[in-house]
Design goal:
Alpha-Beta Plaits; five-stranded antiparallel β-sheet; 13 helices; about 30% helix; about 15% strand
Length: about 425
């Protein structure tokens, strides 16, 4: 066979492949997808296998488009994820329409599965926080880290870090009034003190501040940090109170220092400013940042609205707000939502209850990295209390509140690489 014939055959094969090439579209709109949450798991699985994914922002609820394969179809079927097969020509038409200036849509290329770390003490169950619960349900792998790992700079091994129901101020979650005699509270307090001492710190507040500063440096260096519930405001409070004793004697063995409110440095925080600390150890609250005690919203009317951004000009907030609805059920937590008057002007509000003056979902840049704060404990458990049973996500596979968490999981996969100069 001549080289010319071989060349012609090769061209014919390539042309045939082009004609037959097809894609899998995973729709994410309200009526088309059987399991929105597991769809993110499929996308992560594809990325972890070395393939790339097109995230079609504002197209069918933020659909995913992936090169077709029998293995992908099988995996979608096994996990109960709805998918559609389209031709190469149909895919090109979709992308062409998305690219039109008249459409508030954009196609973002997801390139690599981010390595995920969840900050949590040993012994916690996956259902103790919403993120580990949904990661487990969506079959997205993660690893756990805690204080010793963080202080040893092991965060550098990860692309994405989650913080949940944590108290970085050293006040043990301000559970003192209700639970100070409870065996679990006494045990957790002792374990925290023993850990701090083993790491060379006299007080838990000092050790937690050191951890918060390591997390701060991780973000500044280019990391992605997602926090929920009390990890949001307690993190900022700890940073702002560096070198200031804000803990009363039942927490750290000595009184707080006089006039500590005036010594708070708001320049050190990520998201919040001008807040007033809650001084009483008997009040289940850290500061005026949280809206839990100030809000007057009945459960049946508790919703927050996702903001509408330009997909082409603001792809990052658009990614973080992808959903099949713009109105999401509210849910409470130790930190339910944020007083909008305390959110810094350079921080973007992604979701809000405007009538009540509260921000629920916010995002910002710190150094080379990014952070997202999401108020509340569990998007499908309106008022989760200590000892309540876990949420069964099999009953909520289309949860818009949980989708916001998973948007943040995929966000690092779309990170733009720096151009060489």
């Amino acid at each position: 066979m001549t080289l010319q014939k071989i060349g012609l055959i090769s061209i014919f094969i390539l042309m045939s492949f082009s004609v037959k090439a097809s894609f899998v579209v995973i729709p994410m709109d309200v009526d088309s997808q059987n399991d929105h949450l597991k769809a993110y798991g499929i996308t992560y699985w594809v990325l972890s296998n070395g393939q790339k994914v097109q995230w079609l922002l504002n197209y069918r609820g933020g659909a995913f488009m992936i090169p077709d394969s029998e293995l992908l179809r099988q995996e979608c079927t096994i996990r109960g994820v709805t998918y559609e097969i389209i031709s190469n020509a149909e895919a090109e038409t979709i992308l062409s329409n998305i690219d039109s200036p008249s459409q508030n849509q954009e196609s973002v290329l997801l390139e690599k599965a981010p390595k995920i770390a969840v900050y949590t003490p040993s012994g916690k169950k996956p259902w103790d926080d919403a993120v580990t619960l949904v990661l487990t349900y969506a079959e997205i792998p993660y690893e756990t880290v805690y204080d010793k790992s963080v202080l040893n700079d092991e965060l550098l091994l990860y692309d994405w870090l989650h913080l949940h129901h944590e108290d970085f101020t050293g006040q043990y979650g301000k559970f003192y009034r209700a639970y100070r005699a409870a065996p679990w509270y006494i045990q957790e307090k002792k374990e925290a003190e023993d850990l701090a001492n083993s790491l060379g710190y006299d007080k838990v507040s000092q050790e937690k501040l050191a951890v918060a500063k390591k997390i701060r440096d991780y973000v500044i260096g280019g990391g992605f940090m997602f926090a929920m519930c009390s990890a949001t405001d307690s993190f900022d409070i700890a940073l702002s109170a560096e070198g200031v004793d804000i803990c009363e004697s039942m927490f750290d063995g000595d009184p707080s220092e006089p006039g500590y409110q005036n010594k708070i440095d708001f320049n050190k925080t990520f998201a919040f400013e001008d807040f007033i600390l809650e001084k009483s150890p008997l009040v289940y609250e850290f500061s005026s940042i949280d809206m839990t005690r100030k809000r007057r919203v009945p459960k049946e009317k508790d919703y927050f609205t996702l903001m509408d951004f330009s997909a082409k000009w603001d792809p990052i907030p658009t990614m973080l707000c992808q959903n099949h609805t713009a109105i999401v059920k509210g849910f409470m937590g130790q930190t339910t939502s944020f007083d909008a008057s305390h959110v810094k002007s350079n921080v973007l509000v992604l979701g809000e209850t405007k009538l009540n003056g509260e921000a629920k979902y916010i995002h910002g840049i710190k150094g080379k990295g990014f952070f997202t704060f999401y108020g509340g404990h569990d998007p499908e458990d309106y008022q989760h209390r200590v000892g309540d049973p876990k949420t069964e996500l099999e009953l909520h596979p289309n949860s818009p509140g949980y989708r916001l968490i998973l948007n943040n999981i995929l966000f690092p996969a779309a990170e733009k690489k720096k151009h060489k100069t």
